[in-house]
UniProtKB/TrEMBL annotation:
<dbReference type="Pfam" id="PF07494">
    <property type="entry name" value="Reg_prop"/>
</dbReference>
<dbReference type="InterPro" id="IPR009057">
    <property type="entry name" value="Homeodomain-like_sf"/>
</dbReference>
<dbReference type="Pfam" id="PF12833">
    <property type="entry name" value="HTH_18"/>
</dbReference>
<dbReference type="InterPro" id="IPR003661">
    <property type="entry name" value="HisK_dim/P_dom"/>
</dbReference>
<dbReference type="InterPro" id="IPR011123">
    <property type="entry name" value="Y_Y_Y"/>
</dbReference>
<dbReference type="InterPro" id="IPR020449">
    <property type="entry name" value="Tscrpt_reg_AraC-type_HTH"/>
</dbReference>
<feature type="domain" description="Histidine kinase">
    <location>
        <begin position="814"/>
        <end position="1026"/>
    </location>
</feature>
<feature type="modified residue" description="4-aspartylphosphate">
    <location>
        <position position="1108"/>
    </location>
</feature>
<dbReference type="InterPro" id="IPR001789">
    <property type="entry name" value="Sig_transdc_resp-reg_receiver"/>
</dbReference>
<dbReference type="InterPro" id="IPR011110">
    <property type="entry name" value="Reg_prop"/>
</dbReference>
<feature type="region of interest" description="Disordered">
    <location>
        <begin position="1032"/>
        <end position="1053"/>
    </location>
</feature>
<dbReference type="Pfam" id="PF00512">
    <property type="entry name" value="HisKA"/>
</dbReference>
<dbReference type="InterPro" id="IPR018060">
    <property type="entry name" value="HTH_AraC"/>
</dbReference>
<dbReference type="InterPro" id="IPR005467">
    <property type="entry name" value="His_kinase_dom"/>
</dbReference>
<dbReference type="InterPro" id="IPR036890">
    <property type="entry name" value="HATPase_C_sf"/>
</dbReference>
<dbReference type="GO" id="GO:0043565">
    <property type="term" value="F:sequence-specific DNA binding"/>
</dbReference>
<dbReference type="Pfam" id="PF00072">
    <property type="entry name" value="Response_reg"/>
</dbReference>
Length: 1307
């Protein structure tokens, strides 16, 4: 059973690899190249492995229809389309989907819907082209008529010009199935389920119905001789020559038979006019009618070059003459006769027990290859006789399995072993061992003469072996100039020379006649092989490449990897008939030649070219009598005749397959215009040569960007970044796998547009703008000269006016100052006179009139000074945060006295504005002038309305009053300087002018309007938000004097020891303003009139009282008088608040003992300072009286307080030594309650009554200790202490030492 399998396997291998019997060359014959297939499957990207139809479009893309998807292939990648195709195959019929390209380049498909579809490249989509159902085949003839066959739905002809569709069959023939259509000899032939149908001259008929009766015909084809081939389902192949009237059933040739029962799916004529036959279940056949040979290709999973599946559904020949075979489960197989350059035999192509790998020696004789392997014995391959055999130690007398050399001598084969000597295999396959060689390693066997050989050995040097006598001569390191016994190879030179190559000691020359050996010192390499020709010796080395030794010139030329060799290890050298050398290396085969100057031309071949493997072996090379070259390597053996090597001459079509802009797909529109910011492009392209796309190479360039072509190798993308605006044309060319270039570039033109600012229109605009600019500059300089001239004149005029204004301002200032001096001298004596009590009433009236007008004149002078400051620009804003509502209440209260004195009433309506940012001085002057103006011009018994509110960060202030007459006022002139509406009225007309200037300085507005014919209203709007002012307009906080900072007491928690302040003010806003401003530093008590204030003062005894003068119930003068004349409260400092106009009240207040007098409106900081200083003064009094209870004229105390202190001193003088003087007794002696005395002493001295008595006794004790000689006990009793020890303890607590220690210190 095993032998039957082996013979069957061998037969299939022979059929796959060789044509007929000529497997190996005979005399005067050539080697026929093998047919090897490559594959394309789902592993490479095919959508599915059942390929039912194949086509190539006009561009060059391949289209593969599968059960699951239509595939477009560009050699690099697949594009899948969602189209499924029918794949039904039976012994008597097949139903397969179709894809077809017509003569005009249109792509058509028949998917599983059974409807004809057409591909539209513009939209990259398919659309139904016909409503005819169950379509099976589509074809276009030479007249551009279309034919559409169906499964049982008739046969149609479509006229593309008229767009008419005609049913060609009569009703009886409508059910037939159509499988293939072809134009032949002026007629259109259709293979159908009922035979071969012929359409001609508008009629149809069936040819040779009796021959094709009972089976369906499947496929059609014809060759250049117009021979017609018809395939059938189950009945094989039929042939009809143009000269014959009948078809014949093809059964093969004399030596090659063709089965009659094949299920043929498709037929194809290749470019060599050979017929390819695709069968279902029997693989594929290749029929060469010229050579009368048939090759049968079937699947072999172990053979990578065999057909990949036995169910072949379709055939196709592309424009490169590559034959494609679509299979029903293994994808695509394709054959390119130029792809595999070399015949190959590996273990994958031989039976399991036959070994052709690790080949170390080769010889050929009579169509039989002998291969010695390293460790796997001796293999005989006699392919012409279907004979493979491997000899090993186990199945023969072979001495060992490591065969290092072979030599065929007639019918005998000499076998050189590693460590097992030399053996001979005769024609009867009997192996005998040559005597005297049992343990030798024979690297090479070389013919010497008819009876002797040269033997190159590993450790015995060079031997001469006689077939009859054995070893007859020996050259080694002991008897010659050889320095090593390891002889790798030898080659015959001229008749008298043998060249010897050693394993590790270079090259030697043997003079055969003289039997002398000479070392060639210029060649010291480890030698693998030698070749001699025409006085030139070629040397293959182990690591130093190929060397040429010119024997006549004794020169050496070296060729290494840097010169183009694939590797620097050269195993074998063989010549061909065209003066080339073929080299086997560790990296494939090389074709090598040199010119007259020994410059090399090297062409390398790799696995892509059909090599057994990249690595070859030492000694495994041979050239037969016909010039066929053999090279053995690790995986097997290659053989070829160099002059029969073919190269693919077809130039590939090159296509640009994609465009990306910034790595995003961009549709390739012809002459596309891209904006300037889309200037980073990536092109992808492909060479539509599909046999070996990984070896296709590319060159590209971008016209107007690249200077020349850029070689990208097999990389099929080109990337450009930041292309400047320009017109570009991208060009790309490609080569096939044999380096044949198609120098006609595929192009794509596009434009990167200029940005709008760089377009021609923009440049025209720029030019116009430049002209306009030049004209503008001219006009400008002309205008500037004119303006400068005018400005110079105006400047001179302005300077003159400025000097005049400065002079005027200076005059105003000087006059004002000069007037103030005499006014002061006038008002001073007048005030002194008015103080005299004996003044007569009429004199007092005159003096008061003088004082009133001097004050009026002073106000006018101040206004003039303010105006001069504004005019000169010296007046600036000093904005600070303040309680604006309180400030306005103070100002209005200032004018209440004047208003009431003239029987007028000021009605105030002021909104709370506690955190406003204003210049208080400007606000005071503006409001004061407006109120003063209103009081001046308002009739008696009328009201003046002052209203202030905040709106959107601005102060809205209005002052409204009734006019004294009903005449219409000239409002526009009210704010002019020195304007007086009534010439008889008081004033000089500068008040409102000053108001306007100050309002403008404060960034506000001032307006005036008349209401109800007899009312006039002034409206002021001022910004009061911080953001309305700059930093320079803010009051400088850091530069504020130290004594103006808010008072900070140690106790911030308002404890009982904290200073307290009583605020007496009838105006709620002012009272609240003062209280809130002081509450952070003092305990605050408030009262709304003088009577309530007196009551609280006596109850709480505050440290200070602030009181308004004008109040209901009891005014400030009465409050001051009451408190200062009361012993309990006389020590409390009092600050009076009043208006400017109440000067007599100020004098009266000072008379009653007021400690300070502040005019409204007042600064809260000034008030704080006055409070602080007065409280500090009271503290100094406490400190004074706590040290010595003596009155000092420099101390500021009231008469009431002086009387109290005198009475205290009197009581002390009389009763201090009385031990019965307690706090109760002290209060009785002072005619005061104990509590009142305690609080009074605490306020004045800072201690309680008991502590005060004790401190005074201790002070007396100090005087006695210094002045008397009394003892401590005596002094204790003298000063009123009942216990000397208690006296000593009290004394030490007060003075830090005992009385005795104190007395000793002051002796």
């Amino acid at each position: 059973m095993k032998s039957i399998f082996t013979l069957t396997y061998i037969f299939s291998v022979i059929l796959v690899l060789f044509c007929g019997k000529q497997a190996l060359p005979q005399h005067n014959e050539v080697v026929q190249k093998q047919v090897s297939f490559r594959e394309l499957t789902v592993k490479q990207g095919l959508s599915q492995n059942s390929v039912v139809s194949i086509a190539q479009d006009s561009i060059g893309f391949m289209w593969f229809a599968t059960q699951d998807g239509l595939n477009k292939y560009d050699g690099k990648k697949f594009t899948h389309y969602d189209r499924q195709f029918v794949d039904i195959t039976r012994p008597t019929f097949s139903k397969l989907g179709k894809v077809y390209v017509d003569r005009e380049g249109n792509l058509w498909s028949i998917p599983n819907t059974g409807l004809l579809e057409r591909y539209h490249a513009a939209t990259d989509s398919f659309a139904v082209a016909s409503s005819i159902e169950r379509a099976s085949v589509f074809y276009q003839d030479s007249k551009n008529n279309y034919y559409l066959g169906t499964y049982g739905n008739g046969l149609y002809q479509i006229d593309p010009a008229k767009k008419d569709t005609v049913q060609l069959l009569n009703k009886a023939h409508l059910p037939i199935d159509s499988y293939d259509i072809m134009e032949w000899n002026g007629a259109v032939l259709v293979t159908t389920s009922r035979g071969l149908l012929q359409l001609k001259d508008g009629k149809y008929g069936f040819l040779q119905q009796e021959l094709f009766n009972g089976f369906a015909l499947s496929a059609l084809s014809t060759n250049k001789e117009n021979t017609l081939f018809v395939g059938s389902f189950g009945k094989g192949l039929f042939i009809k020559n143009i000269d014959n009237n009948f078809f014949s059933h093809f059964i093969g040739f004399d030596e090659h038979h063709f089965p009659k029962n094949l299920n043929i799916e498709d037929l194809l004529i290749d470019n060599q006019q050979r017929l390819w036959v695709a069968t279902y279940g029997n693989g594929a056949y290749l029929i060469d009618f010229e050579k009368r040979t048939i090759q049968h290709f079937t699947a072999n999973k172990t053979d990578p070059y065999a057909l990949h599946y036995n169910d072949v559904l379709c055939l196709y020949k592309d424009f490169t003459q590559t034959v494609w075979l679509g299979t029903d489960g293994a994808g695509l197989s394709f054959y390119d006769k130029n792809l595999a350059k070399f015949n190959v035999l590996t273990n994958n192509q031989t039976p399991p027990n036959i070994h052709v790998d690790v080949v170390r020696a080769i010889t050929v004789d009579n169509n039989t290859m002998w291969m010695g392997t390293s460790g796997k014995g001796l293999t005989k391959a006699s392919l012409s006789e279907s004979d493979f055999k491997t000899f090993t130690q186990q199945n023969s007398n072979l001495a060992g399995d490591r065969i290092m050399s072979l030599f065929k001598d007639g019918a005998n084969l000499f076998i050189g072993h590693q460590n097992n000597g030399l053996q001979v295999l005769n024609k009867d396959n009997k192996i005998t061992t040559c005597k005297d060689t049992e343990n030798l390693t024979v690297w090479k066997i070389l013919k010497r003469n008819k009876s002797t050989f040269w033997l190159c050995t590993r450790n015995k040097g060079l031997l001469v072996y006689d077939k009859n006598k054995g070893i007859i001569k020996k050259y080694d390191a002991t008897n010659s100039n050889l320095q090593t016994n390891n002889i790798r190879t030898a080659v015959q030179g001229d008749n008298n020379t043998l060249w010897i190559g050693t394993e590790n000691d270079g090259l030697y020359r043997l003079n055969i006649e003289k039997e002398t050996i000479t070392k060639i010192n210029t060649i010291s390499d480890n030698i693998k092989c030698l070749y001699y020709s025409k006085n030139l010796l070629w040397i293959g080395t182990n690591g130093n490449g190929l060397k040429l030794y010119n024997i006549a010139e004794k020169s050496v030329h070296s060729y290494e990897k840097k010169d183009g060799l694939p590797n620097n290890v050269v195993y074998g050298i063989l010549p061909d008939g065209q003066n080339n050398l073929w080299l086997s290396t560790n990296q494939g085969l090389s074709k090598f030649s040199t010119d007259a100057n020994y410059r090399p031309t090297i062409e390398n071949y790799s696995n892509y070219d059909g090599l057994q493997a990249l690595e070859y072996n030492t000694g495994a090379y041979y050239r037969d009598e016909n010039g066929t070259l053999y090279f053995g390597g690790l995986e097997g053996i290659n053989w070829f005749q160099p002059d029969q090597l073919t190269f693919n001459p077809k130039k590939p079509k090159t296509v640009i397959t994609g465009l990306k802009v910034f790595n995003k797909e961009q549709k390739m529109v012809p002459n596309q215009k891209l904006p300037h910011n889309k200037n980073t492009l990536t092109f992808s392209f492909s060479s539509l040569h599909f046999s070996q796309p990984d070896r296709n190479e590319y060159k590209y360039r971008l016209v107007n960007n690249d200077e020349g072509w850029i070689a990208s190798g097999n990389n099929n993308t080109a990337h450009y970044t930041n292309l400047p605006p320009n017109d570009y044309t991208f060009q790309v060319i490609s080569s096939n796998y044999d380096g044949v270039w198609n120098n006609s570039p595929t192009t794509y033109s596009f434009t990167i547009l200029k940005p709008w600012y760089a377009t021609n229109l923009a440049k025209v605009v720029y030019a116009l703008l430049a002209l306009l600019l030049i004209y503008g500059l001219y006009a400008y300089f002309k205008w500037r000269w004119h303006v400068q001239t005018q400005l110079q004149f105006e400047h001179e005029e302005t300077e003159r006016l400025k000097k005049l204004d400065e002079f005027k301002t200076k005059l105003y200032t000087n006059i004002s100052h000069e007037i103030r001096t005499p006014l002061t001298l006038i008002s001073g004596p007048v005030e002194n006179q008015l103080k005299k009590e004996e003044l007569k009433p009429e004199d007092q009236k005159d003096l008061e009139l003088i004082q009133q007008n001097s004050n009026r004149l002073m106000r006018l002078v101040n206004q003039m000074l303010d105006l001069s400051l504004v005019d000169s620009g010296a007046a600036t804003l000093t904005v600070e945060q303040t309680d604006l509502s309180a400030l306005l209440h103070q100002i209005s209260a200032t004018f209440q006295y004047t208003a009431k004195s003239t029987n007028k009433n000021i009605q105030v309506e002021i909104q709370n504005m506690h955190n406003a940012w204003v210049d208080k001085d400007i606000v005071e002057k503006v409001v004061s002038n407006l109120l003063s103006n209103a009081i001046k011009y308002a009739p008696k018994n009328t009201a003046i309305h002052l209203k202030a509110l905040e709106k959107k960060g601005r102060l809205k202030l209005s002052v409204k009053n009734v006019k004294s007459d009903s005449r219409k006022t000239n409002l526009e002139q009210l704010f002019e300087r020195f304007h007086q509406e009534d010439p008889s009225s008081e004033g000089m007309g500068v008040g409102l002018a000053l108001v306007k200037e100050l309002v403008n300085l404060h960034k506000g507005t001032l307006s005036v309007s008349e209401q109800n014919a007899n009312e006039i209203s002034f409206c002021v709007t001022l910004p009061i938000h911080k953001t309305a002012f700059t930093e320079t307009e803010m009051a400088p906080q850091s530069d504020q004097p130290e004594d103006t900072q808010p008072i900070q007491l140690e106790d911030t928690n308002k404890s009982s020891t904290e200073a307290s302040v009583l605020v007496v003010e009838d105006n709620l806003e002012i009272r609240g303003y003062i209280a809130s401003s002081l509450e952070q530093d003092y305990r605050i008590f408030t009262a709304e009139n003088g009577k309530e204030g007196i009551k609280i003062a006596k109850k709480e005894l505050p440290d200070l009282v602030i009181s308004d003068i004008m109040m209901p119930v009891a005014n400030g003068i009465e409050l001051c008088n009451t408190l200062k004349n009361d012993e309990l409260t006389s020590h409390i400092p009092i600050i009076l608040l009043t208006a400017k106009v109440g000067e007599e009240n100020e004098i009266e207040g000072f008379k009653t003992g007021a400690d300070a007098y502040i005019t409204k409106p007042f600064s809260i900081e000034k008030l704080r300072i006055r409070i602080k200083k007065l409280i500090e003064s009271r503290k100094k009094l406490k400190e004074h009286f706590s040290k010595t209870f003596e009155l000092n004229p420099d101390l500021a105390i009231t008469s009431t307080e002086t009387d109290f202190l005198n009475r205290v001193q009197t009581v002390l003088d009389k009763h201090i030594t009385d031990s019965d003087l307690t706090s109760e007794e002290f209060s009785k002696l002072m005619n005061m309650s104990r509590t009142q005395l305690h609080r009074k002493l605490t306020s004045i001295v800072g201690v309680s009554t008991t502590a005060f008595i004790r401190s005074q006794r201790l002070k007396l004790a100090c005087r006695l200790l210094k002045e008397s000689d009394n003892t401590t006990s005596e002094i204790a009793y003298q000063i009123g202490f009942n216990s000397p020890s208690y006296f000593t303890r009290c004394f030490k607590e007060s003075y830090g030492c005992t009385p005795t220690e104190y007395a000793s210190k002051h002796v």
